[in-house]
Structure of GPC5 protein:
Amino acid sequence: DLQICQHRAPTCCTKRMEESYQAAVRRERTQSIQALNFELKYMIVGHITAFQEAFESLLRFAENRTSALFETAYRPMAKEAAEPVKELFTDISLYILGAETTVESAVLRFFDSLFPLVYSRLINPGITDLSEDYAECLRLTRQDINPFGRYSKNMVTELSKSLWASRMLSQALSLGVEVINSTEHAALSKECSRALVRMQYCPHCQGLTLIRPCVGYCLNVMRGCLASVSELDAQWREFISTLEYLANEMAASHELEVALAGIWSSINEAILHAQLNGPQLSATVDKVCGQPKQQQGNLSSANIVPVKEVTETQPFVMAHTSLNNKRREFINYMKRSRTFYASIAERLCDGDLVMRDSSTCWNGEDVV
């Protein structure tokens, strides 16, 4: 009653053993593919972690530098500005990780929150009662009266351009892990599991437990079983090329690092622009939002403080170098894996599975 290991000679197998063999080959094939995938997946997951750590380090450095700007140059609003600054850098981090947000919305939301503070603490420091309604009116009119000039839009442009490649690379790496995971759990067809049993276990039914499959026979069976997986070859090669392109885009002009390091400067220029145009802004705001309660005297001119670069740059340089090195090592490794799916049958037939140094092997029917 054997269905797979039929042979003219007497056999020591039963139909139940054949069923056990089919379960075994399915389990073994999954384990073999997992073992092949392990190094590749380990490298991708490791780079995702390393990339995120290096990026977060750059982000923390840029955030600390921006916070220091408010502490040193704009102390009257430093405490209240802490939350908008934190939200800005959180939004940037989420954008890189693929969240449904945009750099433009993050930056403009930051400037919306910043304008009431700049207006009441620097342009009109005599304001004693900044009610929530008045602050909301200032937030809503920020886009119409454009108190920060071209600097807010310039910041959107620079960050959008530099963060795009990082976001795409982060998403591409996650996609790569998904692809690898899907190949590990590709279901074997009934014909494939029968072919694998015939190749690996039918010799056992004849008592030939030391005879292994012939190399050519193994390759034919594996290529048939893994046809759907090997079809990924063209797309995988294209995926590697895309990773290479994105990494080169990030490394070409160091735009990511430069843009993050320059956030504090853009904000400083924007605030100075608003202060220098304080009288015009006040006149427009009075028409739109009305006049808030004020003490006598306007102290705005005394609060314009030019800011020079004073922050230690060593942590930034280290994070930048680390990110570049990790990027280069990873892309070199991935380029070596271009043929991963084209050669998967050869790799599975390598090693202990087949008979290489013997004159006899199993061809599916007999020992040859």
Summary: The chain has 15 helices and no strands.
